[in-house]
Design goal:
Elements (H helix, E strand, L loop, with lengths): L6 E8 L2 H9 L4 E5 L13 H13 L3 E6 L5 H16 L4 E4 L13 E4 L8 H9 L4 E3 L6 H9 L4 E8 L11 H6 L16 E4 L5 E6 L6 E3 L4 H7 L1 E6 L6 H21 L4 E2 L4 E4 L13 E2 L21 E9 L4 E5 L11 E5 L5 E11 L7 E6 L14 E6 L1 H8 L3 E13 L3 E8 L4 E7 L3 E2 L3 H12 L7 E3 L6 E4 L4 E2 L2 H22 L19 E2 L8 H9 L4 E2 L12 E6 L3 H4 L4 H4 L14 E5 L2 E8 L4 E6 L3 H5 L2 H4 L14
Parallel strand pairs: 1-2, 1-11, 1-12, 2-3, 3-4, 4-5, 5-6, 6-7, 7-11, 10-14, 21-25, 21-26, 28-29
Antiparallel strand pairs: 7-10, 8-9, 8-31, 13-21, 15-16, 15-20, 16-19, 17-18, 17-20, 18-19, 21-22, 22-23, 24-27, 30-33, 31-32, 32-33
Helix pairs in contact: 1-2, 1-8, 4-5, 5-7
Length: 662
């Protein structure tokens, strides 16, 4: 079923089918997962058989399953991708998430197509174009603010999807080539080496140090918890959690967190509805701070802010819990900020050394300090004490792993049930049980039985209603209280549990079958005819055109000049290897716009280039102040050129580099 304009969809990631199933159980309306190949997370692949298993479970709740096929493809990969698309369609998958427009030129199944974040959707014109060529759901660039999202909503009818949580890629998605330039591993082909998480020396044009060993391209993690209502008002309908590399505990917790936020919003907005069926309850209180994070930011949604970077460390700093009071030969004593805080064997602690590097400390054993009162602990680290640099009295300590929390999420931690109404009828031969679920599906089971008049009418009715309301480990529960049970009996009857139980089992099986039979997959949107023109008539390597079919696609849509993708390695000189809304000058208070109005400073601060240095790697930062963007400029390594994909895969991808003569 396609997402309707009044429906809100919680879209969760799945590294594998088991995690996807738990995401559904914790309230996800849709799951996105990698298939056996062609997904932009190279080590998060899954077999078609496993995806089919996830699909069957998700569809029980009318949750949908999307599969990522969002790498750019070589010509020799188009046919395998076509075959895979049909296999996924046959497995029941609801949509494919794509980047490569060459896929629109081949014989795909009638499956819905979604635009990947890699398509870099920042403008209404780009969004409208992708809608008009047949994409039903588009994930917007993470860098957009609320007004920009509203502007896109006003010019489109398709479903707008937006990342609300997880790691932030500092570049506009699909516009980062550093990994390929330095290692030959392409982010556009699912194999990013994450150069953005490295430490860099930052120098100015005169060679003076601006920053020393700072992770200046590393962003904090995305968290839009406070902006959910505003995003709904702006037009977002699919709320996406990043994390196809994340573990089970992360997906359970973050899915539950946003499920609760959306449910609270739906209670306040009766004109809106959730996109799938059922009600979800949890055995724990969701808490995003408990999972790996680099601290949180809402990025650009509410406008540009200075504090969006995780410059000190790309690791998980955890939550502050207390201070060091003593350091012994093989132990550390701590006083916690909250006297009720309990430390456990296996907890993970960390602290910043004098160079602001994060130092981890795994606890082998934790015990209260006798006679010191609550909140005083002695911990015995797993590793030798001499390895803990700058560990001293008065140092603040964080906890970045709570074993009690981990154990809670290792167990069953949610229950998702679909509400049903029950009709129990007397028939000429015995009894019939009809179940009607919250989506209007019905199923009736009948059983011949002798009819016994109840000696105690009130007690018999109480027991009968009690037994009818028991749905055990099924996916169903009574919709509301026992008024959801209707008894149609000629007179008060004694109906034993031994008769009700098999009747209910059969009715439940029939209702599950009816739900699966009633499920309809979303349909493929038709492209506008004749083909609409692309918003530009020339494309550089930034368009990621890597095969002849993609070239033909853009040519059909009016593009005259089409350069090959950076991965084709025709761009051997200095080019923009990353384009980002994040600005190092702004984050370090060196922006000319910031200087305006500051007495004695205005005019002295200019957007001159800076240099990033990591070992032998040097990158130039150039600043385009009109759109407020930063370009990270560099060249492809000779070693990468020498291991060119051209020689490995036959004919090179070459297109017009200049406008052809007509």
């Amino acid at each position: 079923m396609s997402l309707l304009a009044h429906q809100l969809e919680l879209l969760s990631p799945a590294r594998d089918a088991d995690i996807g199933i738990e995401a559904v159980n914790h309230g996800a309306d849709a799951i996105y997962i990698g298939g056996p190949s062609f997904g932009a997370r190279s080590s998060a692949d899954n077999s078609v058989t496993e995806i089919r298993r996830l699909v069957r479970h998700a569809h029980r709740f009318n949750s949908r399953v999307f599969v990522t096929m969002n790498t750019i493809l070589r010509d020799d990969e188009l046919e395998p991708s076509r075959k895979l698309a049909w296999q996924l369609y046959d497995a029941g998958v609801d949509a494919l998430i794509i980047q490569d427009m060459g896929l629109l030129q081949i014989d795909l199944p009638p499956i819905q197509l979604h635009a990947s974040t890699q398509t870099d959707i920042r403008t209404p014109e780009k969004a409208r174009f992708l809608q008009d060529v047949g994409l039903s759901q588009i994930v917007l660039a993470r860098e957009l603010d609320l007004q920009q999202i509203k502007d896109i909503r006003q010019q489109t009818d398709c479903t707008l999807e937006f990342f609300v949580h997880g790691a932030l890629c500092v570049a506009y998605s699909g516009q980062c080539y550093i990994s390929h330039a330095h290692t030959g591993r392409s982010a556009n082909r699912g194999d990013c080496s994450q150069a953005c998480r490295l430490p860099y020396q930052v120098t100015d044009a005169a060679g003076r140090f601006v920053a020393h060993d700072k992770h200046v391209l590393s962003m904090k993690d995305n968290n839009q918890s406070a902006n959910m209502a505003a995003l709904v008002d702006a037009g977002v309908r699919s709320f996406k959690i990043e994390g196809r590399y994340k573990d089970m505990g992360y997906v359970k917790n973050i899915t539950a967190h946003y499920r609760k936020l959306l449910d609270e919003l739906l209670e306040q907005r009766p004109e809106l509805a959730r996109a799938s069926s059922g009600n979800t309850t949890f055995t724990f209180t969701p808490d995003p701070d408990q999972n790996f994070n680099r601290e949180f930011t809402d990025y650009f949604v509410q406008g540009r802010k200075e504090d969006i970077g995780a410059f000190d460390t790309p690791k998980n700093p955890g939550q502050a819990i207390g201070f060091v009071t003593r350091v012994g030969p093989d132990w550390v004593e701590l006083e916690t900020n909250d006297a009720q805080t309990i430390l456990h064997n296996g907890d993970g602690l960390c602290y910043y050394d004098l160079q602001k590097e994060l130092v981890g400390m795994a606890i082998n054993r934790a015990e209260p300090v006798s006679n010191a009162g609550l909140g005083h602990w002695r911990v015995f680290p797993k590793d030798p004490m001499h390895g803990f640099k700058d560990l001293r009295k008065g140092l603040e300590v964080n906890r970045n792993r709570d074993t009690t929390w981990v154990r809670v999420l290792d167990k069953k931690s949610s229950d998702r049930r679909i509400g049903v109404w029950v009709n129990f009828d007397e028939t000429p031969q015995g009894f019939a049980l009809t179940l009607t679920d919250e989506d209007g599906n019905t199923a009736t089971a009948q059983m011949p039985a002798a009819k016994e008049v109840a000696d105690d009418a009130a007690q018999a009715e109480f027991r009968l209603r009690e037994n009818l309301a028991k749905f055990g480990a099924t996916v169903f529960e009574l919709a509301g209280d026992q008024s959801s049970i209707t008894l149609n009996l000629a007179q008060p009857r004694f109906v034993p549990a031994s008769l009700i139980n098999p009747l209910r089992r059969e009715a439940v099986e029939l209702l599950e079958a009816a739900r699966l039979a009633a499920y309809t997959r979303p349909t493929r949107a038709a492209a506008v005819q004749p083909p609409v023109p692309y918003p530009e008539d020339s494309l550089s390597y930034l368009a990621n055109v890597y095969n002849a079919k993609a070239h033909d696609f853009y040519a059909q849509h009016g593009v005259k000049v089409i350069a090959a993708a950076y991965e084709s390695q025709e761009e051997e000189g200095e080019v923009s290897l990353m384009i980002t809304k994040h600005c190092v000058r702004f984050s370090m208070s060196l922006c000319p716009k910031q200087a305006k109005g500051v007495t004695g400073v205005q005019g002295t601060v200019k957007a001159e280039p800076l240099m990033l240095i990591n070992g032998k790697d040097k990158l130039t930062l150039r600043f385009d102040c009109k759109p407020c963007e930063m370009h990270v400029v560099g060249t492809i390594r000779k070693s990468v050129l020498q291991s060119s994909p051209r020689s490995a895969h036959g004919t090179p991808v070459q297109f017009y580099r200049t406008r052809p003569q007509t």
